[in-house]
Design a protein that fits this description.
Elements lengths: L64 H42 L3 H33 L5 H28 L2 H22 L1 H7 L5
């Protein structure tokens, strides 16, 4: 009996070739990366985040439409205030010159004193309008970078302007002046839009936005 015969049924079974063990599965929670790409972790610079609204990267912010309208109205109001101030200064100077001429002709009397006083009052009013024009321009310029102080100041400014418009409307009704009536209505509308733009949620969000 030969054990070396492969056809011998009583011989030992032929030896099987060794089987390679299965590859170990990847560890849980650690994604595999290609060999050419280094893993992102400690020691590797991270990509910087783009600025935007909190909670994610967003596109650059743009001023809401109502805010842009209020800003344009501020510049228009500033132009009107400058014109009123300039004309008032010329009016005060004219009245003062007339009072001086009356003194030279008729001597120092009550009319000349009234003229000088009126010129002084008109000149103060002119300076007030010029100062308000400076405030209007400052508020309009600060819309792009200003904070809550600009918002509150503009809101109060618009409310006060609307109140003066209401007083002008009452006066225009008493004197039956169509020009004064139109001017008062425009002033009420301008002030109302300014105040509404600051009270609106879009206005509050604009002045509360993050700045980079």
């Amino acid at each position: 009996m030969s054990f070396g015969d492969p056809n011998n049924p009583y011989g030992p079974p032929p030896q099987q070739p060794p089987v390679a063990p299965p590859a170990a599965p990847p560890g849980y929670g650690y994604p595999q990366a290609p060999p050419s790409v280094p893993p992102q972790g400690y020691g590797y610079p991270q990509q910087p985040a783009y600025p935007g609204y909190p909670g994610g990267n967003m596109m650059p912010q743009t001023m809401p439409g109502l805010m842009m309208t209020a800003r344009v109205l501020l510049f228009i109001v500033a132009g009107v205030q400058v014109l009123i101030g300039i004309f008032a200064i010329f009016g005060a100077a004219t009245i003062n010159d007339a009072s001086n001429a009356g003194e030279d002709t008729f001597g120092n009397n009550g009319l000349s004193d009234i003229g000088h006083d009126s010129a002084g009052i008109i000149f103060v009013i002119a300076l007030l309008f010029l100062a308000l024009a400076g405030l209007s321009i400052t508020l309009g310029v600060k819309f792009s970078r200003g904070g809550q102080g600009i918002r509150i100041t503009t809101m109060v400014y618009g409310i006060i302007g609307s109140l003066f418009g209401v007083l002008g409307l009452i006066n225009a009704s008493n004197v039956n002046s169509s020009a004064a009536l139109v001017f008062a209505l425009l002033w009420i509308g301008f002030g109302g839009v300014m105040a509404a733009a600051m009270i609106a949620p879009s206005g509050a969000a604009w002045f509360n936005r993050p700045r980079y």
